[in-house]
Amino acid sequence: MSQYQQDIDLIATLKATQNGTWNGIDPEYAARMKTQNRFKTGLDIARYTAAIMRRDMEEYDNDSSQYTQSLGCWHGFIGQQKMLAVKKHQGTTNKSYLYLSGWMVAALRSEFGPLPDQSMHEKTTVPMLIEELYTFLRQADARELGGLFKQLDAAKANGGDVAAIQSQIDNFETHVVPIIADIDAGFGNEEATYLLAKKMIEAGACCIQIENQVSDAKQCGHQDGKVTVPHEDFLAKINAVRYAFLELGVDDGVIVARTDSLGAGLTQKIPVSQSEGDLASQYTAFLDTTPVEGVEDLSNGELVIKQDGKLVKPVRLPNGLFKFKDNTGFDRVVLDCVTSLQHGADLLWIETEKPHVGQIGDMVAAIRQQVPNAKLVYNNSPSFNWTLNFRQQVFDTWQEAGKDVTAYDRDKLMAAEYDTSELALEADQKIKSFQADAAREAGIFHHLITLPTYHTAALSTDNLAKGYFGEDGMLAYVRGVQRKEIREGLACVKHQAMAGSDLGDTHKEYFSGEAALKASGKDNTMNQFDV
């Protein structure tokens, strides 16, 4: 017996005990509402999606072609439309997640207005967005199941294939998928990190991404001026997130440890070493220092540390920050990653300055010498100029192979004149296969784009505004938007139904019977799209 039928029977049994006071309740209607609202709390979602991620991670370990993907979404509606599209075009939500980008929260959701990605936005906005995303995904479930229930009723009334529709209901695949949620650098100390992580998990987050920058000096991973923290400080925050998962009963919650060390040349403090070769001493070994022979080598207020049996003074900038040696980023990234995995993190995130499979793969290979199953979440960032990067990579490969590249100017490969060239076509093929190549060769389990819907919103709005306020007028909307929605089968063309009017009508029928005042009658202009 299906869960749906079990619910009908259980509610009917419960109704029978109410001495007639529940005569207005139809057990099948109640069972339908229960089916349409599978997840009762955010913790239900977090536990369900954590299991999905753990399964996907195991499948990737066995077969690197089984990588996962997501797009960053800054509003519940955007996340809903993304997952409706994935399910429509791919036939399943399997291996598809959502990404919650701190960058987009700062730029689009702060009450201060648009902000840079520097942890200045309200931290409560992050769990609020997680809850919002899942509210919209659950509504997508309710809407699609509502349509199936209508089909079921029609089949029962007209002698249709009831069993086939009932099977679709019983095997319905939810739009609720894992969210990888950005907690930035924790918005404060480890207690602040723990408190915010709890709110995020309670809202439904099964996976939290945290970075090793200084919380109050946080910068976007693709900007300059990044300052990292000693390993001990970062591990305390990883512990804080794990405690939050365990306290709330999400025992298999996922932690992504992000390192910005490849592009960060500064640290805010020098950790205290307790024993030779410990993490603190490994961290300070990367500091840029000058030797100290005597007190005359010191200025007032300068610091001295003992390193390899000698006294040295770390290079200290006017702002009080300490500088790392040049060209140590690779080694610092490897140490960051190995240390994080050995102390409770599940996945890694390495911010790079370009999308280069070889560069990423070299770092992962070094990490896997100590942690063989290390795998990455990787930002397919819009901050990269993908066209120029990959054209230059092809140019360099051709040049090294002795191929004639005199027809191309490496510094100007972004020019439109190259768009149809052999080099550009090969570069586009490399961009197309980048995710599969990097999953296979560079240990990338999850590919995401942090802020694609920020750009798509801007581009689509620009296209509409250009025509609507220009010569095309209303044709710009009709041809560029509405007609495409109809031709491509977007459910959103019926925006009233997408916003919940049909669900509301159904509920009114449940609650009021024939007395229900419904919005979907013959005068509803949405009926014009039933063509």
UniProtKB/TrEMBL annotation:
**Could you tell me which InterPro entries the record lists for this protein?**
ICL/PEPM (IPR039556), Isocitrate_lyase (IPR006254), Pyrv/PenolPyrv_kinase-like_dom (IPR015813), Pyrv_kinase-like_dom_sf (IPR040442)
In its UniProt entry, the species of origin is given as: Alteromonas salexigens
Catalytic reaction equation(s): D-threo-isocitrate = glyoxylate + succinate
Q: Give the Gene Ontology MF terms in alphabetical order.
A: isocitrate lyase activity
Tell me yes or no: is Secreted among this UniProt entry's keywords.
no
Question: What Pfam families does the annotation carry?
Answer: ICL (PF00463)
The alphabetical list of record keywords is: Lyase, Metal-binding
> What's the protein called, per UniProt?
Isocitrate lyase
Q: What is the lineage of its organism?
A: Bacteria, Pseudomonadati, Pseudomonadota, Gammaproteobacteria, Alteromonadales
At the top level of its lineage, which domain of life is listed? Bacteria
